Amino acid sequence: MSNSGHTEQKVSKRSLTSTCTPEPALGPLSQLPGVWKNSGQFHGHGWNMIAVPFPSGNHDYRLLNNQYNETLTFQLVDKNVPNRGMRGDQEVFTVDYVQAIEQIAAADFPESGLAGEPGLAIHHEPGLWLHMKDHTTGDLDIARLSSIPHGDAVMALGKSQKNHTGFDIPSISGLPIGVNQDLDNPYLHPYLHFHEHLFQGVFDPTKPNELLNQAILPFFQQDKVASVTQLKVDSALASGGVNNIPFITRQANATEVSSIFWIYELKEKHPNGEPKMLLQYTQTVLLEFFDSPIGPGLIKWPHVSINTLEKQPSK
Question: Would you state the pLDDT for residue 285?
Fold first, then answer.
């Protein structure tokens, strides 16, 4: 107690550390630190679909599909980040990440000659995941901040959950919103093409999440999963949002980003005693370009990426 009669506020010590092992202070993000890759049976399990303007095509757009390998690294943990407030301070725990993606194969329709060759680096993204320990808005306890070199910055907010039985992987459509979604619609011919001729023989861009279910289902059927953490965030929630450079807003504006990450702790362990772990995600970016033929506003084009990765042992 000070002489003035005011109670001194206890300030938690902030610390920044580098780690590749679980960090309990991160709460629902505690299992992220380390390196996750498309290794072993999950080589080539990254899939991406995106429609982009293409003035030379019959529909003024082309549908591009990519198969990829990814390295997703979570390393620096920032503990007790203080947000000062009038009615108490908030503590935020963060972990930074770098996502690096290399193309294995690509195909588009109509064919443009622009899909690129194997080995092409097609994505690089640094960012942060945040765990808001207290003074949360409703039950929003996590956030993802992303910076993409195309000229996009994303703040997506959301909720974490954990159980031992797993979460439903939603069935989503990759078809554009704001057009007649019947695949017999001539305007959707590029989607029909890959629906009838699956990319790499397995990926259907009209139902992009199906491969996530196929990858994880055997682990549940064989009772190999100990626990599952779900991290679900959306830029449309609360104060989230997407900011883009002027060229993007004029050409193919990215307006919303939503993603779900599932962290699976398996019952099996590595030789060093660490549990084997898998990570899956589905991410949808809504791009807006071209006037909708059936209503006001622009067509919204889902740009969907999915993957299944393994966590690499720390030793």
Answer: 98
Which has the closest alpha carbon to 123: 95, 144, 146, 93?
Answer: 146
Residue 210 vs residue 295, higher pLDDT: 210
Evaluate whether 315 touches 269 at the Cβ level (below 8 Å): no
Q: Of 78, 259, 97, 229, nearest to 160 (Cα)?
A: 229
Q: How many other CB atoms are there within 10 angstroms of residue 256's CB atom?
A: 19
Contacts of 151 (CB under 8 A, 6+ apart): 244, 245, 247, 248
pLDDT digits (tens, 9 = 90+) for 267-295: 999 999 999 999 999 999 999 999 999 98
Per-chain mean pLDDT for the chain: 94
Write a three-state SS string for the chain: CCCCCCCCCCCCCCEEEECCCCCHHHHHHCCCCEEEECCHHHCCCEEEEEEEECCCCCCCEEEEEEEEEEEEEEEEEEEEEEECCCCCCEEEEEEEEEEEEEEEEEEEECCCCCCCCCCCEEEEEEEEEEEECCCCECCECEEEEEEECCCEEEEEEEEEEEECCCCCCCCCCCCCECECCCCCCHHHHHHHHHHHCCECCCECCCCCCHHHHHHHHHHHHCCCEEEEEEEEEECCCCCCEEEECHHHHHHCEEEEEEEEEEEEEEEEECCCCCEEEEEEEEEEEEEEEEECCCCCCEEEEEEEEEEEEEECCCC
* Residues facing 300 on adjacent strands: 177, 288
Give the predicted TM-score (pTM) of the model: 0.93
